[in-house]
Amino acid sequence: MNVLVVGCGALGSLLAFKMVRAKIPVKVLQRQGAQYDALKTGGIRFIDREGRMERVFCEVVPTLDGIEPVDLALVTVKAYQTEEAASVLRGRLSENGVALTLQNGLGNAEILEKTLGAERVAAGICTYGSHRRGPGEIAWGGEGMIRFGPWKAGVDLSWVEALLKQAGMETFLERDPRKALWEKVILNASVNPVSALVRTRNGVLLESPETLALVFQLVEEGVKAAQSAGVEVATEPMKNLVGSVLEKTANNKTSMLQDVESGRRTEIEAILGRLLAYAREKGKELIRMETLYALIRAVEKASEMGPG
Ligand code: KPL
Q1: Which residues' Cβ are closer than 6 Å to ligand 1?
Q2: What global pTM score does this model have?
């Protein structure tokens, strides 16, 4: 089995690191630039929870030209880069190969499906915390798990489950991943924009009653968005899930905070944008999500315009 990690940001680096350590043949597809250079020369450097650094090396490629068919492609690029990832993977999967999206937001599996076909797509969520310290370096941000399943019902992905477990990740294979994707997007919609605006680590959101109340109100709005899409998500278990992820990833910076800090575009469209669209279609107003959406868009605009 050979694995390709598509996009080596915080999550992609963590997955590649764990796979290399478990001696699973893995390549990383990374566009040329500072991250590519750092991975090529210095490998993936992982700072564990005690602050110790461990380094692994794997093959880093800027394109898929000349590489053997891929059995498992782990798609971890930003949600707004999924179309590009899908076209790069076109014709590159092995006969029973699968592209597994573990990205944030809704709509990624649908984009992959259009190019690769539903039977070649799997979707899932990953709640392991990891943040980038700089090119080639990530830091532990908290324990988590992976829940995933086939996009087309009935496709056997037990071999993918076995690989992820071999890499040491707590993994749950589900018959249909859609509910898990909804739970994750509600989690991200409730936590990521708040953390990015307050500019704080996940654990701090638990400590102030005001921010925690806001996070839980956002969960309630997220559940309403899910209902608008015909998906049943129960509010109380969802709040418990958010509370426990915040606890486990207390030391982590959300991906949206990392994006804002680096002046990058965020995944606000694939997260809040999608939830708001579902709610609007049913005439529901999600006032807090509207507000946070506008604020994050303003942060993006300000960062495009530069200082002053
Ligand atoms: O998915 C995450 C993210 O930051 O995008 C969590 C699980 C909230 C970890 O920070």
Answers
A1: 104, 127, 129, 188, 191-192, 202, 245, 249, 252, 254-255
A2: 0.95
